[in-house]
Design brief:
globular, Nucleoside 2-deoxyribosyltransferase, Nucleoside_deoxyribTrfase
Length: about 170
């Protein structure tokens, strides 16, 4: 491990389809190569299982025990991180990711937003609170590989540009 490796990353993303899961795999590979990254926390690695739940994926309603544990585990991951990296699916916006970004910024922690789209031909739009709330933007479609070299020790700002802000 490099001596420059001090950053603990909270890797936030929706994780519901094949594209999103593939992005996580690639992001982890890139972050593992980054000499400033000490550890990556991915909340789905610590998924809580409520033993009292039967068929939890059926019907979309999860137990209160599962919801509380999942919520608290995610917030603890954010509190323990020095920086957030969010793989932001512009085609399937995720309220959970938006909340986590806002919570991380409320703690005065930097956020690197990596937006993706399967429709690069469309006009790019982003909500004002996300665009102004993040520290840095790395375009997921064209700059994803920069996660391997980005300086997470100093987290230099790169504002959101090129998006219609709504």
């Amino acid at each position: 491990m490099a001596t420059d490796a001090t950053a603990t990353i909270y890797l936030g993303t929706p994780f519901y389809n094949d594209d999103q899961r593939a992005r996580v795999k690639k992001a982890r590979e890139l972050l593992e190569k980054n000499p400033t990254v000490f550890r990556v926390h991915f909340p789905f690695d610590q998924s809580f299982v409520d033993p009292a739940e039967e068929n939890p994926e059926v019907g979309g309603v999860r137990s209160m025990t599962w919801r509380l544990a999942t919520y608290n585990n995610d917030l603890t991951g954010i509190v323990n991180a020095s920086c957030g990296v969010f793989l932001y699916d512009m085609d399937n916006l995720d309220d959970g990711s938006a909340f986590e970004i806002g919570f991380m910024r409320a703690l005065h922690k930097p956020v690197v937003l990596v937006p993706f789209t399967n429709h690069p031909e469309r006009d790019k739009e982003m909500n004002l609170m996300i665009a102004q709330g993040v520290t840095t933007i790395i375009d997921g479609n064209t700059e994803f590989a920069k996660l391997a070299t980005y300086d997470f020790k100093t987290t230099p700002a790169k504002p959101v540009v090129g998006y219609k802000i709504i």
